[in-house]
């Protein structure tokens, strides 16, 4: 199941990026996880890892200039939507709404403009530390790719460094890059975990996301208190139950 | 539309619509600003016919945001998003008369009635982003009480629109007032606005509280205090 990236603003040409993964770093389901082998450290493999490595090096699909250029068409689309809903786009409260909504939507998808490599390059440090590092309760806001309605919740990240540690805020920045996109919670969890793995080559990574989906709360089944929990465990978090237990206990406390 | 009160603007708007043959979108602005009797800005059967235009608009939005509209996850998203948006603005279909007609009862009760913690979800009309929270409604009946769920249904009618929290509060209060003619109505809304939380200032824990007090709630401080105390208690 290959998808192609759209690297040009507004262009309908699809550039096939070979075996690379897709827009939004969507990982092809066939890709072997970095910690697939039983006793191998994550991301130690080379050739077979290319699709996963691409998410680290993926091209930006959008630039700031693209944003400015697409604003008028986005605003026009929103004006159509307002009319289609039976509202009057000329009334005072709605006069500038198409522009505000367009800018807001571009903000909610600003993850497409950013690359992991820009955010992380300086903040990887050599440190002789091999105990678990956890950053929890990172507030996350994303957009459901199926209904274009917000998802929000908390991300808990834990990793076991392998001689290299990461600046703590960079974990939150990785969450921002991947969450500010049109997402599916399962994919978001995996992308965060894989990005940390590729950046640091740690002994193991665990990511847990607990989120509320407005598409379930505001419409559809309308279950107010429902939460969706997804997790990705890589490396030693996957293989060793005690490590995983420690991580899950510490994020609960 | 949506109870926008400035009559002057509405006249200009009507002219604009007439001249541009959008007459099906016209609302008679001289009618009650809170709700239009027997006229809604969107007929239910029009929803289906408006879907293709909405879908096309959403497809264009996805493309302009730099996404690939042919990937599996996004294939039917324009349709789903259009239907979701129509659901989130379904309050335009509905009028108070339709839902209340049967459920007003003559009851010799003149003590406060409060329905609190009604979950409310609406859309910010400025950014088209949700805001949600809780509504607390209190009223003092004047020989007529209303079925309790009808208070929640009134909230639904006015909240499922493009709204401003202040206007929503007032519309709910005035709607109940006009339907029941009670001695007083009080409505308090406490909501979290995603446009402030997810973007802009990004203040996670901020809440906006608005209230409308009518009748005896406005005049008598003790009544107001009783309502506020009872609706706050856990």
Secondary-structure blueprint of this entry?
The complex is a heterodimer of chains A (253) and B (234).
Chain A: H1 50-57, H2 64-84, H3 97-108, H4 116-120, E1 124-126, E2 133-144, E3 150-160, E4 164-166, H5 168-179, E5 182-183, H6 185-200, E6 204-213, H7 214-217, E7 228-235, H8 236-239, H9 241-252
Parallel strand pairs in A: 2-5
Antiparallel strand pairs in A: 1-4, 2-3, 3-6, 6-7
Helix pairs in contact in A: 1-6, 2-3, 5-6
Chain B: H1 7-19, H2 44-64, H3 77-88, H4 96-100, E1 104-106, E2 113-124, E3 130-140, E4 144-146, H5 148-159, E5 162-163, H6 165-180, E6 184-193, H7 194-197, E7 208-215, H8 216-219, H9 221-232
Parallel strand pairs in B: 2-5
Antiparallel strand pairs in B: 1-4, 2-3, 3-6, 6-7
Helix pairs in contact in B: 2-3, 5-6
In total, how many beta strands of chain B? 7
What is the ordering of alpha helices and beta strands of chain A?
Answer: HHHHEEEEHEHEHEHH
Tally the helices of chain B: 9
- Radius of gyration of chain A, in Å, reads 20 Å
In angstroms, what is the radius of gyration of chain B? 20 Å
N→C terminal distance of chain B: 37 Å
Percent of residues in β-strands of chain B: 15-25%
What's the rounded overall pLDDT mean of chain B?
A: 84
Characterize the biggest β-sheet of chain B. 5 strands, mixed
Portion in helices of chain B: 40-55%
What does the overall shape of chain A look like?
flat
Class per helix and strand makeup of chain B: alpha+beta
Quick one: overall form of chain B?
elongated
- pLDDT < 50 runs, ≥5 residues of chain B: 3-10, 20-40
Instruction: Report the oligomer.
Output: heterodimer
> Main β-sheet of chain A, in a few words?
5 strands, mixed
**Fraction in beta strands of chain A:** 15-25%
Class from secondary-structure proportions of chain A: alpha+beta
Write the element-wise H/E pattern of chain B from the N-terminal end onward.
Answer: HHHHEEEEHEHEHEHH
| Total DSSP E strands of chain A | 7
Biased composition (Basic and acidic residues) (chain A): 55-65
Enzyme class (chain A): hydrolase
Keywords (chain A): Allosteric enzyme, Cytoplasm, GTP-binding, Hydrolase, Metal-binding, Nucleotide-binding, Nucleus, Tetrahydrobiopterin biosynthesis, Zinc
InterPro entries (chain A): GTP-CH-I_C/QueF (IPR043133), GTP-CH-I_N (IPR043134), GTP_CycHdrlase_I (IPR001474), GTP_CycHdrlase_I_CS (IPR018234), GTP_CycHdrlase_I_dom (IPR020602)
């Amino acid at each position: 199941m290959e998808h192609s990236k759209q690297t040009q603003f507004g262009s309908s040409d699809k550039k096939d990026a070979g075996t690379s993964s897709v827009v939004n770093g969507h990982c092809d389901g066939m890709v072997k996880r970095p910690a697939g082998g039983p006793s191998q450290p994550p991301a130690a493999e080379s050739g077979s890892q290319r699709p996963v490595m691409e998410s680290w090096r993926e091209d930006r699909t959008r630039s700031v200039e693209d944003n400015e250029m697409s604003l008028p068409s986005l605003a026009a689309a929103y004006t159509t939507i307002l009319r289609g809903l039976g509202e009057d786009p000329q009334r005072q409260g709605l006069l500038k709404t198409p522009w505000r909504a367009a800018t807001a939507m571009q903000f909610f998808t600003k993850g497409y403009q950013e690359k992991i490599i820009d955010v992380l390059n300086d903040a990887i440090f050599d440190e002789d530390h091999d105990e678990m590092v956890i950053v929890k309760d990172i507030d996350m806001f994303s957009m459901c790719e199926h209904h274009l309605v917000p998802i929000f919740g908390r991300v808990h990240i834990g990793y076991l460094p392998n001689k290299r540690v990461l600046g703590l805020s960079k974990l939150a920045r990785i969450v921002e890059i991947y969450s500010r996109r049109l997402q599916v919670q399962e994919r978001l969890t995996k992308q965060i975990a894989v990005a940390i793995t590729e950046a640091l080559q740690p002994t193991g990574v665990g990511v847990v996301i607990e989120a509320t989906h407005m598409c379930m709360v505001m419409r559809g089944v309308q279950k107010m208190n429902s939460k969706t929990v997804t997790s990705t465990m890589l490396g030693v978090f996957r293989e060793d139950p005690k490590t995983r237990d420690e991580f899950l206990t510490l994020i609960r406390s | 539309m949506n109870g926008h009160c400035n009559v002057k603007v509405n006249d200009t708007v009507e002219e604009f619509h007439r001249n541009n043959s959008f007459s099906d979108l016209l609302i008679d602005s001289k009618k009650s600003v809170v709700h239009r009797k027997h006229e809604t800005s969107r007929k239910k059967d029009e929803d289906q016919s408006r879907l293709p235009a909405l879908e096309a608009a959403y497809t264009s939005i996805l493309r302009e945001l730099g996404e690939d509209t042919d990937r599996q996850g996004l294939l039917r998203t324009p349709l789903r998003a259009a239907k979701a948006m129509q659901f989130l603005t379904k309050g335009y279909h509905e009028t108070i008369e339709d839902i209340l007609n049967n459920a007003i009862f003559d009851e010799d009760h003149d003590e406060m009635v409060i329905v609190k913690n009604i979950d409310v979800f609406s859309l910010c009309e400025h950014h088209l982003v949700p805001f949600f929270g809780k509504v607390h409604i209190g009223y003092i009946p004047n020989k007529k009480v209303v079925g309790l769920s009808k208070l929640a249904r009134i909230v639904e009618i006015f909240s499922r629109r493009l709204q401003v929290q202040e206007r929503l509060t007032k519309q709910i209060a005035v709607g109940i007032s006009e339907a029941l003619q009670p001695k007083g109505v009080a409505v308090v809304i406490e909501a979290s606005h995603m446009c402030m939380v997810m973007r802009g200032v990004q203040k996670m824990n901020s809440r906006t509280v608005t209230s409308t007090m009518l009748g005896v709630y406005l005049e008598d401080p003790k009544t107001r205090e009783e309502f506020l105390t009872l609706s706050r208690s856990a």
